[in-house]
Amino acid sequence: MIVMPAVRHTAAGAAALLLALPVTAASTASAASVAEPTPPARHAVDPARLDRSGTQVQPLRGAPEPPAVSALSWVVADAATGEVLAARNAHEPLPPASTLKTLFALTALPGHDPEEQHTVLDEELYNIGDGSSLVGVKEGYTYKVSDLWNGVFLSSGNDAVHVLAAMNGGWDAMSAKMQQKARELGARDTQVVSPDGYDAPGQVSSAYDLAVFGRAGLQDPRFVRYCSTPYADFPAGSWSYGIVNTNRLLTGADGVAPYPGLIGVKNGYTSGAGNTLVAAARQGNRTLVVSVMNPQGGDGFAVYEETRELLDWGFGAWGRVTPVGSLKPAEEPHKRPEEGQDRTQQAQAGPEDGGDSRRNLRAAAATGPREAPRDGVPSGSTARLPLALIGAAFGAALSLWLWRRFGARGN
Fold first, then answer.
1. Which of 73, 155, 156, 291 is catalytic?
2. Which helix (H) or strand (E) holds 305?
3. What is d(CA 163, CA 160) in angstroms, rounded to the nearest whole number?
4. Can you list the domains of the chain with their CATH numbers?
5. Which of 120, 248, 271, 365 is 20 to 30 A from 290 (CA-CA)?
6. Which helix (DSSP H) or strand (DSSP E) does residue 244 occupy?
7. Pick the catalytic residue: 27, 30, 73, 98?
8. Is residue 132 annotated as a catalytic residue, yes or no?
9. Beta bridge partners of 76
């Protein structure tokens, strides 16, 4: 029971009575939340940021500066989440050289069992570009599919690529399949003309797309096994010879120190592309993927040293930068209701959300009250409860005042 304090019998007294009423918990929470200062917003990822030229990075306090490498384009990304930690000219179209073999592997690896054997036909080795890197595939010889993939990843053998492409529908069909695979992965800069990465008019990729391919490859154990193999024996009829992975960050060849925890992935070089590299490395529970295209300084091994600098920076900057983008494909646009969907459901659907919002509201009503929105303004019956109490009290006070003023005269 609420005991009303004595007040003057006037309209002002009724107002004073309202002020004297106890304040409910709901109204207190509402007032407190409205008066509370809004916390600073978290840094949002601008989806268009990677389209800008120059170095893109959003450092937090204590973050190291990205290295000033000479590559025309590069990307450093978290392989697990796909978050891009920093990038430079990420979408600039450039010739990819043999790093395009990463996309070739993503497309062709599922087609054949590693133990399957194939006897090479003469026509499968036609039209290999002049000056191509070769592993030594010979017509008439029989190879396991795994041998051919070792030739692709370790020796960057364009001859092995030609044979595997022939086994997967042919050169033109493989180009089309690779193009489709790139689009499925969200790689929009890549145009495939020659599946082995050999320079061809119109063939381009980007540091962003190459990082996408490298990250996708890490999800396939066969891809990882091939790209991280430093040495293998390649068959040659009744005997075999050793082949060495040309990724010097993996093997430590030619005076390039091996990078700790390096997984692979693929290096490349052509006169048109310069040196290119996709690399992945793991330290503890963290894995980075880095792509570097065409360093402008140093010698032919500069691509390895600049990749090393970017990997070192990425591990040092982990948790100290806000991502500037993502390697994950953009979300598909909202689809229209299926043809067989009930017309009543279509009519109930909102103009943009396909009815999901209304269905969610109905589900929430069935399961109980919803959490208050983040802006602190309560919704539903909890917002109306204080107003109902205040209105009832005001009516009671007004009735009492009117009775005392006019009812007393009648007595």
1. 156
2. helix 302-317
3. 5
4. 51-326 (3.40.710.10)
5. 271
6. strand 239-244
7. 98
8. no
9. 86, 290
Asked if 294 and 72 touch (Cβ cutoff 8 Å), the reply is yes
Q: Is 144 a catalytic residue?
A: no
Residue labelled with tokens 């003309």: 193
pLDDT tens track for 85-110:
999 999 999 999 999 999 999 999 99
Q: What number of residues does the chain have?
A: 411
String of DSSP letters for 116-130 = -EEEPPGGGGTTPPT
pLDDT for 173 equals: 98
Closest C-alpha among 335, 398, 381 to residue 18: 398
Catalytic (active site) residue 101? yes
Q: Residue 34 class from Cβ within 10 Å (0-12 exposed, 13-18 middle, 19+ buried)?
A: exposed
Crossing angle of the two packed helices 101-108 and 207-217, in degrees rounded to 10: 40
DSSP 8-state secondary structure symbol assigned to residue 91? T
- Within 10 A of 68 (CB to CB), how many other CB atoms are there? 9
What does the H/E/C string look like for 315-362? HHHCCCEECCEECCCCCCCCCCCCCCCCHHHHHHCCCCCCCHHHHHHH
**366-385 pLDDT per residue, tens:** 333 333 333 333 333 333 33
The backbone torsions φ and ψ at residue 261, rounded to the nearest 5 degrees and listed phi first, read: 75, 15
Span 281-292, mean pLDDT? 97
Catalytic residue among 101, 177, 181, 266: 101
Strand 286-295 to 58-59 pairing: unpaired
